[in-house]
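Give me the 3D structure for AarF/ABC1/UbiB kinase family protein.
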Amino acid sequence: MDGILDRQKAKLKRAAKLMQILTKYGFEDFKSKLDNNSDSTDEAKIAQDSAFYERVRRAIEELGPTYVKFGQTLSTREDLFPSALIKEFKKLQDNVLPEEIDLIPHLEKELEIAVGDYFTEIDNTPIASASIAQTYVGKLQSGEQVILKLKRTGIKEIVHADLLLMKDIIELLTNYYSVVREINLLHVFDAFAASIQEELSFTNEQKNIQLFGRNFRGNPDIETMKVYPELSNDNVLCISYIEGVKINNKEGIQALNLNPEAILDKCFNLYLTQMLEHGFFHADPHPGNILVTPTGKVSFIDLGAVAKMSPNDKDLLEDFVVYFIYKDANRLVNTLKKMALHVDIKDDKLLIRAFQEMLDIINTHSLEELDIKALFSKFSHLLNENNIIMPEHIYLLVKGIVLMEGIGRELSPQINIVDKVKPYITKIATQRISPEKLLKDNVGTLWEMRRMLHSAPQSFTSIIDKFNQGEFKVSVNYREFERFRSQELRNNSLNRMLVISAVLFLGGCLLANVEQVNYQGISVISWILFAFSFAIFIKMMLKKYKLNN
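Predicted structure for AarF/ABC1/UbiB kinase family protein (549 residues):
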């Protein structure tokens, strides 16, 4: 009970702060903006809107970390908001003044250790300060350099109170304003809330780092972070220090005597591997989160936010990428429906035509000519226009690809993205028809067949016993009897044809070693009988399936 009261108290406190800041930035006209949702291009209106959107951004910055991060999330949704507002969202920065922390006593209290037993030195000045945490550099007794990530005091309570309040506000707006309802803002918020709560947990980030490392074990192109569990908990994270330059620092990469294009090639392949093979990928691969080491390896850092896919999600994504690359709009839309959380397509043919037009743009291959960002923006607009809500990992994937495209433009504008993806398509196809994959996918069916065969004699014996004891009863619905009788006659005919197919097959087997013209050590006559047998079998099975349905 006390916990509920504390949460409500914190929410009310944040609500008071929210009202104070909204009043400060003159949000009395916010309702009129929602009521007047016109797309007028009048210059005076555009200037007025720009000033309003700037006030939105400044208010968000003052409201604190939760609102800043939500604004950053919305900055990738160009299908939902006016371009002028998106431009302001993109200005939101997650850099805040560092919190004053008495570092050594703080670590000793959190980790219940004597700092001197583990560290030879720790720099008291943070190398980075963000809304959720700030980071320090230290050195272990072993001589290894490490990063210490410390969560800000009280940040968890602030974020939770903000999320409760934000959800109330969005639900209210959704109920009263169709424009908010149409953009499915509540769905966007729910995905954001789940993401930021994962980011708040350093225990979760520790698991992400460990899984990421296992996925890339033995890969010579990547340097993964190492976690020190004995020096980590939910509020403190100790990880290995990665020395390197940002992935978009072309001059810095060249200063290390490395080829920027070769590094970009590695980076792109590693990201595709995360998406299409692991189903576990970095959710925010901006240049600050990807480093190039002096040895030419690529390192992905800051794994607080990742996207995870189930095996079925991964299979559907593979299908989607294959049809996207090979411009099959029909199958692309069908796969899209399977992937979506919600679909309300008014006209399938129009959607397929729109996707085909979009896919035709891919005929221009180079990054210099192909605007990936515009392509995915069009994709997002098509989803929104047809009220198609995708799982959050799809939006994160689109965001990741757009970020990777930006890196590509800085390092090597002529890189061919389509050619980079095609080897993965070949690999996917090969894996899908491999015996191991087929066995894995059908092991459940095989197990069920084994169970049925195992229990069949017992079931049959039970039926015979009841028949002998006069307890066996058959209930027939008269109205269905004629239809059943007619279908049974057709089934009998089909069964006779199947028997013929089996006889032909057995005949082929018996004549396999007859001395005459042969192929692959089997007589030609046998091959002919096998062919007729299989043709009849397949045809009859298809007819039987159609009748039964």
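The chain has a mean pLDDT of 78. Let me know if you want a second pass.
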